[in-house]
Amino acid sequence: MRQRLARVLGGVAILALVAGGAAACKKEEATTPGGSTVSGLKIGFFGALTGDNAGLVTPGKNGAELAIAEYNAANPGADVQLVPFDSQGSPDKAAALATSAVADAKIIGIVGPAFSGESEVANPIFDQAGLPIITQSATRPSLNSKGWKIFHRGVGNDLSQGPAIGRYLKDVAKATKVFIVDDQSAYGTGLRDEVKKILGAAVVGQDKVTEKQQEFGPVVTAVKSSGADAVFYGGYTPEAAPFLKQLRAGGFKGTFIGGDGLYDANMLSVTGKADVEGAVVTCPCGPATAAKGNFVADFKAKFGTDPGVYADVAYDLTKVFLEGFKAGKTTRADLQAFLGTYNGVGSATGVTYKWEANGELDPAQVAVWAFTAKDGAWANATQIPKG
Amino acid sequence: MNFDDLIQGFPDLTTTGLAQGSVYALVALGYTLVYGVLRLINFAHSEVFMYGTFAALWTWGLMGYDSNSTRPSLGMALLLILVALVVAALFSGGVAVLLETVAYRPLRKRNAPPLAFLISAIGASFVLAEAMGALTERRQQGIPSILPSTPLFTAGGWTVTPVQLMTLVVALGVMFALDWFVSKTRFGRGIRAVAQDADTAALMGVNKGRVIALVFLLGGLLAGVAAVFYNLKQGNTRFNGGFLIGLKAFSAAVLGGIGNLRGALIGGLLLGLVEAYGAALFGSNWTNVIAFVVLLVLLMFRPTGLLGESLGRARA
């Protein structure tokens, strides 16, 4: 018993020391003039870095890494670090990760969380700690109405993407009978509702699938017996790829379209070149491979691959934080205030980043693009006309 | 309730349901065999199955076919499937025997309580799944399209694709072969003897350890066969892909009467059909609800499943 008491006391003492040390560091930081020389600042990157959905997120992490490497090289004495938080895209893992991000006082900004589901869990924790975030790809519209002051979104939400998909189906693909499938996720249902609103009577059928579902025989049957000439899928690649493959195996020849959840290299490789051909995905982001400035060349030089989805967005958003560091905003509160009045053009995306009070990007800056699978790659990037 | 979809799609739903049910049935046989002999639910069987899907995938990869390849000619397709069946069956069988040797045999030697077996089974399941997850970076992997997607024949609204026909035919064939093996051969007699009364069988000179290894091997072989058809039908696999199939197959085994070989077949096919019809009636999101409600109701009236336990009884 006494031993245990001693241990507990020892633990408390150590904790107190650590906390005291951290507090001391913090004070030091705040008094150091010229933010860029403050050492040990960190930016968190929150999202699925492994797992089925990693293909959507790792390019963005590389983009953030590139931004930080460039900043550290250009500013002598700067040693900003990127701290990855691998949620595997799962809301279940988000709370613990968010808590540990908050606990590290050196982390004063977060790029992410990348998905809507995990955002719902992690953002309240960030909000409570006043840790500002900018997400590059969580597009569920309702995220802006939860009263999180720290919330910023660097792309358009599904209120822009959903209607754009609807317009694409109507005006570009000339679909008259659309079958709608969603995966019942925060992201999938949000997108589905917006697409339905635009299409109205052109929706001839609807079904819902579940996460991790692999057998889509009954859905394929329903699509075929509805006589649909287009299928919209609201969800992510792990289910969409086998679904599309089974649709094609079942003889469906019409258009297949999905949101940015499918704008992923895995969608191409898992479905396979022949079956994915002609599939369309949309994204509130331009083609990263056509980003402005030296971004594409720099990215390729550092990582040996072309920049993937959201790499350019995450790069620019990370740079927003870094500009804050440079301007001496080295606490969470200062950085949060900095974002509130920020107005600058991203060097890779060319988008003017300026946030409204609810954390949404200025609507004039939002553009939605469509990509078509061709020969095993996403090609034919075209901007969907605004409604 | 959407009766239109059910009626219009009835033929299609029946064929997809039977094909899916065949996969359940093949995996269910593995659960039922082991349970019949050891009274042990081998929770790691779903992983034995999952390893089979990867064995088939790798085999095709070595033969030069990945998800981006164009469809091979029919002769090549049959060769690919045959080779994959052999490799996957042997691989899964090997994993199953290894599992038995490492996870269960030491416990049996020490007369461990049933709970220890259960924990060992769950632990082995995690180890196998996570090892594959680490090995494949938890990535979903696409399966090459091998068989043509054009229907074999169409008659009165009934269309049957090559994959569906092949799945059902092979499942039935394997099932009958197994039935014959267990009821007619010397090894089969050994299995039945140990299932009925392990101690007496041992006194009569049956090598219990060998019979148990044989049972695991058989279950693994069947899981490997199921894995190939799962690949062909589903078009992808991943490290946690065995979980759901395993759960469904186990339910199918219980539905038909666990320990009963024919019951596993009937339970599997029935579960496949119920899922397909249920999905059409209520929407795919209700599939699992329907399937398990049917299971519950059935067990209420026939607690030992449709055909009852039988591997342990004399008539089997």
Helix content range of chain A: 40-55%
Mean pLDDT over the residues of chain B? 91
- In terms of quaternary structure, the protein is heterodimer
Please state the average pLDDT score of chain A. 89
CATH topology of the largest domain in chain A: Rossmann fold
The side-by-side strand order for the widest beta sheet of chain B comes to 1-4
Distance between the first and last residues' Cα of chain A: 72 Å
CATH C-level label of chain B: Mainly Alpha
% residues in beta strands of chain B:
under 5%
- Number of strand segments of chain A: 13
According to CATH, what is the topology of chain B? ABC transporter involved in vitamin B12 uptake, BtuC
Describe the biggest sheet of chain B?
A: 2 strands, antiparallel
Please describe what this structure looks like.
The complex is a heterodimer of chains A (387) and B (316). Chain A is an alpha/beta fold and 387 residues long. Chain A contains 13 helices and 13 strands. Chain A folds into two domains: 37-157 and 289-355, Response regulator (Rossmann fold), CATH 3.40.50.2300; 158-283 and 368-383, Rossmann fold. In chain A, strands 6-5-7-8-9-12-13 form a seven-stranded mixed beta sheet, with helices on both faces. In chain A, helix 2 (54-74) packs parallel to helix 12, helix 5 (158-172) packs across helix 6 (186-199) and helix 8 (237-249) packs parallel to helix 9 (265-271). Chain A starts with a helix and ends with a strand. Chain B is mainly α. Chain B has helices at 3-38, 45-62, 74-109, 114-135, 162-184, 186-196, 198-203, 208-234, 242-256, 261-282, 287-301, and strands at 141-142, 153-155, 158-160, 236-237. Chain B has a two-stranded antiparallel sheet with strand order 1-4. A two-stranded antiparallel ribbon of chain B has the order 2-3. The longest helix of chain B is centred in the first third of the chain and has 36 residues, at 3-38. Chain B is globular and about 60 Å long.
